[in-house]
C-alpha cells in the first residue's frame, strides 16, 4: 500500500464527500427533501430531530450548496429548503445506499423499496460506467488511481495505477 491520505488534506474525494454528507442526520434530511419535504416543521416532525440539530444540519446543507432557502410566506416571513442541482445529484448515491441496505434483508423485511413510477415494479439499482455500461460491482475490474491534481502522497498511494486518460 502507498502513502496515507489524511481527511484533513481535502484531497481524497471520498473524505470530502463524507465530510459534507456523512453525518447521518444530513442523509436523512436529504432523503426527506427527495420525498418532497421542504419546510422546517416537516423535517422536524418526520425525523423526530431536535430543532437545534435540524438548524445546524440545514445551515451546513445551505453552506455546502446542497439546499437553498426560499421564502414561501411574507407575513411572517417563512422559508422553505429546496434541493439545488448539486443536492439533486446526490439522489443516485442515496438510492444506491438504500439498495445496499436492502440487500442485507429478506424481501419481507424491507420497509422501503425502489419502484418504477410508471409500472410499480420493484427495481434493482446498480452503479455502471457511463462510457461502457459495465456494472461496477465488488470485483477488481475498476480501481482508484491518482488523478492529474494528485499530490505526492496520493501518487504514492497508487504508484502502479496511472490512468491512460482522465477525460470524462
Description:
Helices cover 38% and strands 9% of the residues. By secondary structure, the chain is mainly alpha-helical. The protein has a domain at 7-87: Winged helix-like DNA-binding domain superfamily/Winged helix DNA-binding domain (Arc Repressor Mutant, subunit A, Orthogonal Bundle), CATH 1.10.10.10. Strands 1-2 form a two-stranded antiparallel ribbon. The longest helix has 13 residues, at 51-63. The two termini are 27 Å apart.
In short:
By secondary structure, the chain is mostly helical.
Q: What descriptors fit this protein?
A:
Arc Repressor Mutant, subunit A, two-stranded antiparallel sheet, 7 helices, 168 residues, mainly alpha
Topology, element by element:
Elements: H1 13-21, H2 24-34, H3 40-47, H4 51-63, E1 67-74, E2 77-83, H5 85-88, H6 91-103, H7 152-157
Tell me about the biggest sheet?
2 strands, antiparallel
Which residue ranges are poorly predicted, with pLDDT under 50 across at least 5 consecutive positions?
1-7
Shape: globular
Number of strands: 2
Q: Specify the helix fraction band.
A: 25-40%
N- and C-termini, Cα separation:
27 Å
How many alpha or pi helices?
7
Arrangement of strands in the largest sheet: 1-2
Based on CA atoms alone, the radius of gyration comes out at 20 Å
Name the CATH class of the domain at 7-87. Mainly Alpha
CATH superfamily of the domain at 7-87: Winged helix-like DNA-binding domain superfamily/Winged helix DNA-binding domain
CATH topology term of the domain at 7-87: Arc Repressor Mutant, subunit A
Annotated CATH architecture of the domain at 7-87: Orthogonal Bundle
Structural class: mainly alpha
Average pLDDT works out at 86
Order of helices and strands: HHHHEEHHH
Strand content: 5-15%
Amino acid at each position: 500500500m502507498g502513502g496515507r491520505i489524511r481527511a484533513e488534506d481535502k484531497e481524497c474525494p471520498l473524505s470530502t464527500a463524507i465530510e459534507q454528507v456523512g453525518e447521518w442526520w444530513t442523509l436523512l434530511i436529504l432523503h426527506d427533501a427527495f420525498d418532497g419535504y421542504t419546510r422546517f416543521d416537516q423535517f422536524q416532525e418526520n425525523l423526530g430531530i431536535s430543532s437545534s440539530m435540524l438548524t445546524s444540519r440545514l445551515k451546513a446543507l445551505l453552506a455546502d450548496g446542497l439546499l437553498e432557502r426560499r421564502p414561501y410566506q411574507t407575513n411572517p416571513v417563512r422559508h422553505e429548503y429546496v434541493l439545488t442541482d448539486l443536492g439533486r445529484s446526490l439522489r443516485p448515491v442515496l438510492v444506491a445506499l438504500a439498495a445496499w441496505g436492502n440487500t442485507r434483508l429478506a424481501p419481507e423485511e424491507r420497509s422501503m423499496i425502489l419502484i418504477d413510477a410508471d409500472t410499480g415494479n420493484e427495481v434493482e439499482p446498480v452503479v455502471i460506467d457511463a462510457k461502457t455500461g459495465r456494472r461496477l460491482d465488488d470485483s477488481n475490474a475498476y480501481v482508484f488511481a491518482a488523478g492529474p491534481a494528485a499530490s505526492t502522497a496520493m501518487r504514492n498511494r497508487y504508484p502502479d495505477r496511472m490512468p491512460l486518460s482522465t477525460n470524462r
